[in-house]
Amino acid sequence: MSTINDVSRLAGVSKATVSRVLSGSRGVKEASRLAVLKAVDELNYRPNVIAQSLLSQSTGCIGVICAHENINQTTSYLYVLEKHLSQHQKHLLLRFANTKSAVLHALEELNCGLCDDILIIGARFPLDIDQENVILVDCMEAENVNSIQFDHAFAAETACNYLISQGRRQIAMIQPQGSGFADQVLLGYKHALEKNFLPFNRNLVFLEATSSSVALQELLNNAATLNFNALMVADEHEAQHIIPQLQAFNKSVPDDIMVFSLGGSLQLPGVPVIPAIEYPIEAMAVRIVNWLTEKTQDMLGTQLMRGDLFIPDVRRKASR
Amino acid sequence: MSTINDVSRLAGVSKATVSRVLSGSRGVKEASRLAVLKAVDELNYRPNVIAQSLLSQSTGCIGVICAHENINQTTSYLYVLEKHLSQHQKHLLLRFANTKSAVLHALEELNCGLCDDILIIGARFPLDIDQENVILVDCMEAENVNSIQFDHAFAAETACNYLISQGRRQIAMIQPQGSGFADQVLLGYKHALEKNFLPFNRNLVFLEATSSSVALQELLNNAATLNFNALMVADEHEAQHIIPQLQAFNKSVPDDIMVFSLGGSLQLPGVPVIPAIEYPIEAMAVRIVNWLTEKTQDMLGTQLMRGDLFIPDVRRKASR
DNA sequence: CTGTTAGCGCCTTCAT
DNA sequence: ATGAAGGCGCTAACAG
């Protein structure tokens, strides 16, 4: 790799002039400007970003630590994030970490000059971090200033309302252990019931379920008395586990039981499409990039991010 | 962030001594060693990797450009790669790029001092790159020295043999346009037929299919005469598109038609599990990391990577 | 054993 | 308009 010295020598000017030409060339004689450009082209010179980083004290690298349990959930995040970051000449440095210690370890490794800022996404365990350049996205227990959180109560309320509007008044709910949002979800769930003058049945609700399978079995064992006709689960992944089990018990989806995902739908080919709350990843990415570039407005933590209600289009079921 | 100067000042030694203590401290008086360590701890000092990189001319960053069409395919790659890379203190710099120009653009941006080496994964378009520090993984037309390629002919042959062993002698095949491996796959397919003394029926094979849907329709329209009972498709994604369409035509899978994926199975919950050729990602990651760290053995291009035959365990169908 | 010196490649004053 | 010099934070060679 050729350096600025090579260029300056070949062009017969000083390093300073080369630098000037390459960064907003103003106050440079046209002749030397051309000489520099020619030398640059000849040597195929590209300024070393590391040296620039050392000087500017910023690398343009954003560390992204994916703490989500199931990786498929993160894929769409990553794709959208990378798109927005690269549009702003920022680089995405990827890390996976499923436990608190793993996250902290990754944080340590990334946070020693390599990354300007760090995103932690989808952690389902408490994470007492309070660094200025770290922002938590969809993590639990983030009283931190820098965080983007989802409005799970609102999601649950919307979901209930939708289900009720579809004639489903016996709504069961399973939240896996350690989701971290059980109380918020329960709040929204209860709100919706209250507003619709429906009673709250404790036996329909499984918060902190060790196994969603077992919770489902318990629901099914009491199906005769509970008589539930809708089931809210945490995310698409859960839903796709649950649905075959319902079918195995001769419950058709959605006719007998409508399954609703509170955490987005993957919409992969081959899997049944179900109604869901879909969090606007694009909008989130925009908010993140804004914060990364502006750094002034701390509009991150001010308001919870609300998802959209996604309803499967039955007509398009078979099409691509 | 505190620098080595702060530490040396606080510890009352020179920068050099600090550096010595932190990197394989030998030949340092115990007293000053402890003083340095104390100062380091007090200031919470961590050496700036950028400055180190400038000196060592290597950043420990590996650029990974995902050129796969469908992102879900890349997720498992990324996860495994990141695991192996971070174990070797290397960082994964992620980029998505679906077109040749996008890949070249990303390459340009990553290849100016930021990344030591760059991986391009799953490009389905020709990519005439010949840089020492770039390695192509599962890309088409990689006569390049640095590449890991999959043995698609072997995969097709294995697939056919398996299908024939299952009593499926009328094997259809759909390869999407621009997969880049159509000829290799065809080779393996023909080999298997020959070795089993089966005739080759041109109408069963769709290479360079603009739309796999249309190809399937053509197959189904001629189902009476073709009478096919197996169908090989490029990957799981294709398979999950195809299967509902088969079912819509009252063909049951796998009873009437066994669908086989030549490019791995995602094994997501909710989607039917089908037989497939599964490429050993872990082994691939090991090979890649070996090359990145050793750089000596060019065992990358020497042999094609062969996949394993994956057969769904029917008994476990309903379990997690 | 330890401090001084000289750069890694770049950019930014400060003179000229 | 342009060159020389200094320094970003660190390490390696060279003296002591």
From TrEMBL, chains A, B:
PROSITE patterns: HTH_LACI_2. Transmembrane segments: none annotated. GO terms for molecular function: DNA-binding transcription factor activity; transcription cis-regulatory region binding. Signal peptide: none annotated. Residues 2-56 form the HTH lacI-type domain. InterPro entries: HTH_LacI, LacI/GalR-like_sensor, Lambda_DNA-bd_dom_sf, Peripla_BP_I. Keywords: DNA-binding, Transcription, Transcription regulation. This is LacI family DNA-binding transcriptional regulator. It comes from Atlantibacter subterraneus.
